[in-house]
Amino acid sequence: MGLNTTEQENTRRIVLIESEGSLDAYTASRVRESALKRSRQTGGDVKLVWPSTENSRRILRLTHFDRVFDIAEDIDAAMARF
């Protein structure tokens, strides 16, 4: 899982780039939840980039992270959604 952040006017904008096998499922889940909580406390938001493999995409759907996060196909699309 990669991380891309920008700060603008005290608002945190975070893009998490999902990748196959970078973290175990539990750790990845905690990273997502922590990033979302921290960013929203400062008026920010978190966007995800869909992983490239269907198995990883399926996990995000099964855990309903696709309902919690705005997920884009690539980093440029994710950054444009802020």
Describe the structure.
- It is built from 4 helices and 4 strands; from the N terminus they run E-E-H-E-H-H-E-H.
- It is α/β, with parallel strands linked by helices and 82 residues long.
- It has one domain (2-80).
- A 4-stranded mixed sheet has the order 1-2-3-4.
- Strand 1 (2-8) and strand 2 form a beta hairpin.
- The longest helix has 17 residues, at 25-41.
- The model has no long low-confidence stretch (mean pLDDT 84).
How would you concisely characterize the structure shown here?
The protein has helices at 25-41, 54-62, 65-68, 75-80, and strands at 2-8, 11-17, 45-49, 70-72. With 82 residues, it is of the alpha/beta class.
Question: Notable features of this structure?
Answer:
82 residues, alpha/beta, four-stranded mixed beta sheet, 4 helices, 4 strands, 27% strand, globular
Set down the secondary structure blueprint.
Layout: E1 2-8, E2 11-17, H1 25-41, E3 45-49, H2 54-62, H3 65-68, E4 70-72, H4 75-80
Parallel strand pairs: 2-3, 3-4
Antiparallel strand pairs: 1-2
